[in-house]
């Protein structure tokens, strides 16, 4: 964000992520895990089927797994 009017709380730190580096973006690692758990080599008949599968996979992600995926020390 480039706005000079942005008020950043003192407990928030920003980390520069270079462009085109999905391996450094934590959400990309979460999506990778979601694809691995519920979308690898699958075809769906309807969008509703996709949404149901996504919901099932997300609800099945254990807190510790998510922490291990997104906890990066730069």
Automatic annotation (TrEMBL):
Coiled coil: none
Protein name (Swiss-Prot/TrEMBL): IS630 family transposase
Superkingdom of the organism of origin: Bacteria
GO molecular function, one term: nucleic acid binding
Source organism: Streptococcus pneumoniae
InterPro entries from the UniProt entry: RNaseH_sf (IPR036397), Tc1-like_DDE_dom (IPR038717)
Record-linked Gene3D superfamilies: Ribonuclease H-like superfamily/Ribonuclease H
Any Pfam family: DDE_3
Lineage: Bacteria, Bacillati, Bacillota, Bacilli, Lactobacillales
Residues in Tc1-like transposase DDE domain copies: 10-50
